[in-house]
Amino acid sequence: MPRDDKDRADSLEYHPVERRQTPRGPIPGVKLEVLEGAPLSGKSFDVDDVGLDSLFILGDLAAKAAPGQVFRVAVICHGERAECAATCVRSEAAVRVGAVLLLNAEAATARGLLKTALSPSGIPVGQD
Fold first, then answer.
1. Of 36, 47, 50, 75, which sits most exposed with the smallest number of CB within 10 A?
2. Is residue 6 in some structural domain?
3. Does 5 fall in a domain?
4. Would the pTM of this model clear 0.85, i.e. be above it?
5. Is residue 8 part of a domain?
6. CATH number reported for the structural domain that contains residue 53 in this entry
7. CA distance linking residue 51 with residue 54, whole number of Å
8. Predicted confidence (pLDDT) per residue in 49-103, tens digit
9. What count of other Cβ atoms lies within 10 Å of the Cβ of residue 75?
């Protein structure tokens, strides 16, 4: 017996969709140094994906970061450096191997660096 549209709708699975409210993307030259927090302490990472609040760092070691783990980090962009705390919100072991770190509330200076990097020109404010 054929199913009607109501039966079809009842069988659908709904999955949440991540809606990005701020700019995000790959920005050459953005680096992250982990100052405190094993197993990443003392390591430097190229940032693969930059947002105003989060950074995706690549690599097998980065993927060992545990969700919820807090790190003391330095965000380096266009020769400027800002230290802050960041929390691992996701680690990935497939497709892209690495971890997403969310900058904590006190990271205003780091956010300013990332905002400049994400501007259309990518040129730091005050430089031509």
1. 36
2. no
3. no
4. no
5. no
6. 2.40.10
7. 5
8. 998 889 999 999 999 999 999 999 999 998 899 999 999 999 998 888 999 999 9
9. 27
Q: What are phi and psi of 86, to 5 degrees?
A: -145, 145
Phi-psi region of 95 (alpha: psi -120 to 50; beta: other; left: phi over 0): left
Residue 23: predicted pLDDT: 67
Q: How many domains does the chain have?
A: 1
Q: Please write down the HEC assignment for all residues of the chain.
A: CCCCHHHHHHCCCCCCCCCCCCCEECCCCCEEEEEECCCCCCCEEEEEEEECCEEEEECCCHHHCCCCCEEEEEEEECCEEEEEEEEEEEEECCCCCEEEEEECCCCHHHHHHHHHHHCCCCCCCCCC
Domain range for 63 = 24-118
Is 50 exposed, middle or buried, given 0-12, 13-18 or 19+ CB atoms closer than 10 A? buried
Residue 111 has phi, psi (to 5 degrees) of -60, -40
